[in-house]
Amino acid sequence: MRILIPGGIKSSGNAGGFIMLHGLLVMFVVIMCFAAVMAAMAMLSRQGSRLLENVQQEISARNEIVLKRVNQ
After folding, report:
1. Separation of alpha carbons 8 and 11, rounded Å
2. Which one, 6, 10, 67, 72, has the greatest CB density within 10 A?
3. Is 30 contained in some domain?
4. Is 12 contained in some domain?
């Protein structure tokens, strides 16, 4: 039982034999876009952690000021 009709395999479209090259190019573009999104998320996460550290330092400094006033 044959699955294909006898004869040459015809490619769809006008790829001209560069189907694998086009696939690699598309895969490269997708990977680069994914990397850009991950880099943006890493930068946002880093900025968030810096903001959190600054807030914690500010709270600690204000707590020390308040405790000094209360103890006087």
Report:
1. 10
2. 67
3. yes
4. no
